[in-house]
């Protein structure tokens, strides 16, 4: 009787201790040698109202309704979103009627600042590839949670998934200069 050895995999590639860290892989090195303008052109990104650049990549044909509305909308939506370094600090904003999930794709890590505007300190999470340095490749933002983001380098490319699908009617951008209770000026 023989026994099979099960090797854990990620995206079809066996995981092993000798594997290069993701940030040093040839694919990541090639992506990170590009400029923000290169990525914007390659993905046909357009300016986004909260700063940065985006393109909607998918809007689900399946329809649903948000908890507080009977208006049909896509079950989910997906975008690419790029922020540039110092000039790319997004405005404080929130999605009132849907959950948003941020996914890291390429470039520098990105800092997401999150708040319920309840006087508790703002929670900072770094979205990036180096999980051993505390980065998270995915961050979930609950409906109604305030957020803003900044690339920690020249540029960062992320994806944002929203369910139920994103509609600008459920989006709120804070007034310029607004900070949530419990935050220090950034």
UniProtKB/TrEMBL annotation:
SUPFAM superfamilies, A to Z: RmlC-like cupins (SSF51182)
InterPro entries, per the entry: Cupin_DUF985, RmlC-like_jellyroll, RmlC_Cupin_sf, YML079W-like
Domain DUF985: 38-174
Name used for this protein in its record: DUF985 domain-containing protein
């Amino acid at each position: 009787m023989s026994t099979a050895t099960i090797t854990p995999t990620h995206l079809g590639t066996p995981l092993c201790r000798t594997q290069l860290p993701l940030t040093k892989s040839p694919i990541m090195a090639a992506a990170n040698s590009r400029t923000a303008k290169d990525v914007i052109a390659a993905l046909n990104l357009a300016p986004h109202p909260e700063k940065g650049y985006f393109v909607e990549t998918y809007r689900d044909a399946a329809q649903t309704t948000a908890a507080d509305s009977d208006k049909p909308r896509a079950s989910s939506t997906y975008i690419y979103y790029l922020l540039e370094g110092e000039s790319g600090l997004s405005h404080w904003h929130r999605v009132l009627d849907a959950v948003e999930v941020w996914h890291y794709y390429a470039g520098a890590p990105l800092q997401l600042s999150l708040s319920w505007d309840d006087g508790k300190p703002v929670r900072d999470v770094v979205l990036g590839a180096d999980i051993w340095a505390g980065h998270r490749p995915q961050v979930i933002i609950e409906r109604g949670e305030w957020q803003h983001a900044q690339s920690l380098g020249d540029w960062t490319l992320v994806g944002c998934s929203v369910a139920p699908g994103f509609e600008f009617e459920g989006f709120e951008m804070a007034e310029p200069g607004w900070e949530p209770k419990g935050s220090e000026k950034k």
